[in-house]
Amino acid sequence: QEQLVESGEGSVQSGGSLRLSCVVSEVNFRVNDMGWYREAPGNERELVARITRGYDTTYAEAVKGRFSISRDNHKNMVVLQMDRLKPEDSAVYFCYANTETLYNDSLYARDAWGKGTLVTVSS
Question: Which residues, at least 6 apart from 25, have a Cβ–Cβ distance to it below 8 Å?
Fold first, then answer.
């Protein structure tokens, strides 16, 4: 079963930058969409940014123009570059991947999640 390993956890002051990375290991067949979601205390998990295998991107309105998502299909890696961070960006960030497994000549897709990495932005 695939595993998502995140890195880049940290604390910065408002206006600073952080870079989150996530690698999907034990991929059986293919990784489709990848992305980042976040969950702040008392809030539901929400989309931050998402990228398709063909590099089409989607961003939450709150992060457009400040965050950039990219991926390396050969490495099964997704990166979130976060610039001009604000205190309201503080949250646990979760890596997401939709993966496909080939079994008995059939493909099975499932959503996989990382354990989460903490981002803290102080004012």
Answer: 2, 3, 5, 76
Contact 59, 70 (CB under 8 A): no
State phi, psi for 109 to the nearest 5 degrees: -105, 145
CB atoms within 10 A of CB 114: 21
Q: How far apart are CA 122 and CA 111, in angstroms?
A: 32
The residues with which 116 forms a beta bridge, in sequence order, are: none
96, 112 Cβ separation under 8 angstroms: yes
The model's pLDDT over 59-104, given as tens digits with 9 standing for 90+, comes to 999 999 999 999 999 999 999 999 999 999 999 999 999 999 888 9
- Interatomic CA distance for residues 31 and 52, integer angstroms: 9
Q: Are 96 and 46 in contact (CB under 8 A)?
A: no
- Length of the chain counted residue by residue: 123
pLDDT 10s digits, 20-29: 999 998 888 8
